[in-house]
Amino acid sequence: MKVMSSMAGGLAGALSVTAMQELLKRVDPSAPRRDLLVKQAGFKIADKLGNGSTHANTVTGMSIAGDIISNTLYFSLTAAAGKKALPIGSLLGLSMGAGAISLPSKLGLNSYFTGGTRKRKLMTMGMYLIGGLVAAAVSRCLNKK
């Protein structure tokens, strides 16, 4: 496993999920709002760590950066599967989508942002599935070179 191809695949997967979410929220008002969930989590963490006077733009920026970094690291695991990267990417994406639907309420966050309706749940699962497949495809392509 090559670290650079693994990280490049992970970054491609993370950015694809973020790009899909941004596109979907502009064309469909019922689309998942990962961005709002990430911001809510960021403010919750900032409140626990600080005195609550953290600037909103700083928290938002740090939350988005943390989301992309953590998704990159997670999706980079697809490269470890080698030739089985696509099925593993699918499983990683689906499990991440399931977590995005079920974990917010357990963490004290608004689960409506990624769950709420059946359509929103399916769109959330689909975004993460595609992210896992993109990560696997990019890492496999780069490993072949």
How do you describe this structure in short?
The protein has 145 residues and is mainly alpha-helical. 76% of the residues lie in helices and 0% in strands. It is built from five helices and no strands.
SSE arrangement:
Blueprint: H1 3-27, H2 34-49, H3 56-75, H4 85-106, H5 118-144
Helix pairs in contact: 1-3, 1-5, 2-3, 4-5
Structural features, described:
By secondary structure, this protein is mainly α. Helices cover 76% and strands 0% of the residues. The chain has helices at residues 3-27, 34-49, 56-75, 85-106, 118-144. The chain is globular and about 45 Å long. It starts with a helix and ends with a helix. 37% of the residues are buried.
- Average of per-residue pLDDT values: 87
Please tally the β strands and state the result.
0
Class per helix and strand makeup = mainly alpha
In the predicted model, the low-confidence regions spanning at least 5 consecutive residues are none
Structural shape: globular
Strand content: under 5%
Reading the helices and strands in chain order gives HHHHH
User: How many DSSP H or I helices?
Assistant: 5
Please give the alpha-carbon distance between the first and last residues.
12 Å
Q: What summary fits the major beta sheet?
A: none
